[in-house]
């Protein structure tokens, strides 16, 4: 008694001491400012819980936990947290890790890793957590983020937008057909899906594909109390128009047994078909008063009524070569009815997934990398758990093992292999639980499959006894000896779950009567006929019991293929935490949260992340990216794998020395005025045998320094390029100048030759005109008598009476009038040969004097008049008329007689201009 009291006092003292130490180490007023749980001191479940609670109260729902991201479900919409502006801000940030924790940081890190920042590799985003923790919403945000950032190129904007709409549009459709309301979550995923976002060489979204796992089709025919069927049935009932109700034969006030709580409403309207209405009628078609509903079911399926009724009420037994028809009991009829509804819905769901993949999946030649988004059902534990919950929790165990093997275990083993001084941190390993479920030679799955292959009726109690006999050595399984129902309890990584054995074997067999398949294949409905066109595989189990493909076998194979994909990619973990079991907004239940933190190994993850190096890069890859900092070139001989002996060891030593040189340059730049101690360097970096281990802070420093060196190199290249461009432009300019000079010289020479030719013509005409004018001047007569004597033989024109009266003469050889106003005689001589002279003075004598002075020719083109008044350019004063003279002149043939011709027709040029300008 005294010992117990002393132990209690000691325990209370230790608790109070630990509380005082925690109060000393922890400043609770600043807990909400810790963006990373590795900064919490000390790292214990209670301190981590306090930090998360403080951040949740401050409406901060994302927190880093080393390499993982912890997401708390707020249970209320927060639009500003996921807006397009926030997406673009995280995408454009040089270092997104400097921003507040967000799911977009994980998305951007995966997107940049695909682009090859360090090691180009396909990425996978694993979103885990229990049911109702927010996994589906997180996956939806990730898809929206990638659809937004991958549409940044205007070149393929239309293609990206089309794929974006299809990827995002497939979400509500698949949620309608695959999600349902459960006790723990109003929008619980009843299937697993792995979405593969396909990226081309430019890291743009060009397609997507969806792979599904284990649809809970039993929910179509059975729902637990206070749970509901798939969303699509309620949406069809509430969203159908009057015309659609008539087409699908859905009464407005009809209550269907498989649609409990139909008074609740759901947002959104989704695609429906007559087969969904048929599934609704399957819940009513076997009652004694529901013959009309059986007819409606046959009409919706477009099959004969008698064949449908026969398939539901009569089964065919094969006895040798004979077929025996045996009526079914009411329970057997119910099983066949449920089987009809489940197989139609399952085939319709698979057809929907195939249709979605065909509409948005790109050809393999169009994409080279992908980012995978894994959204699976969360860990489940209900009052009644059966095969569905066993498979769901098995999938969560596999994901937990992947996390443990990839991060907690593999990382610590790699530290030891690479020579780091490291002490192992204990963590919860679930390998024993996985051996219990899927191990060999004996496990729950193997015993289930073996029992299903036997041609005998299933016995739950006998199977429970066999489990106790075969698996009692495994510490992860237990039995309640006082329970009346056969069951077994499995200690999962998250919690202990008790599974009911009753009905588990039948669900694992999942038999489909061949009569139902044949009936559906003969349907007149084109879609229903296509769904079961190759449906012979559904009845394989009935034709050969040794070849039965059970539900757990198919699920295990599909899960193994998924794990191969995850192992071939770089995973990014996001742990979704459910703050309270009632899904109330901003309500934090400490017991609920601490159980989830311990189950998923958050505390161990924080310890390893705080003490370890999350970045591990091989020497060759490190120098290939950061060797430019020290101008180190990686040769093919240096980049060889490590072997225990041989020259490769020296190559690794050379690589390690080059890596250390790069790190020394970066670390000296970090603190140029201070000397870093080796301990400080070891906290940030450690060089192993083949790899260099870094912290995120040092990786950021390397990236900053690399960008600075690249900027300097780029500036040098730009200077050389600009110098080359300037020199090239100067050479082109000089060449163009030479070409222009040559062309101008040729044009000038051609113009000068033209001028010389024109000058020669002018000179020839001028000399000819001078000779002619000299001859004309010598032959000029001083008076009328000489004129008459010398030209006696010439016939003067006869003047009529009009000439005497008007003082004018009209010469028949003259065509155009020329107005003469005392102008120079030379101008008259060079005028057109046809002249009309009009004199205002009267008198025959003056007319004769003028004609004698001009010596007008009798025929066109003949100029006989010669004058010696060339120098003066005027006629004899005595020969001029004493009145005003008007002479109309034609244009001179010497229009371009000057050295610089003016190409205008209305300008008098040449010698005519000289004559006109003289006084």
UniProtKB/TrEMBL annotation:
UniProt domain Myosin motor: residue ranges: 32-707
Protein residues bound to ATP: 129-136
PROSITE patterns: IQ, MYOSIN_MOTOR
Pfam families membership: IQ, Myosin_head
SMART domains hit by this protein: MYSc
An individual GO BP term: actin filament organization
Location of region: Actin-binding: 559-581
A GO CC term attached to the entry: membrane
Similarity field: Belongs to the TRAFAC class myosin-kinesin ATPase superfamily. Myosin family.
Protein name: Unconventional myosin-XIX-like
Higher taxonomy: Eukaryota, Metazoa, Chordata, Craniata, Vertebrata
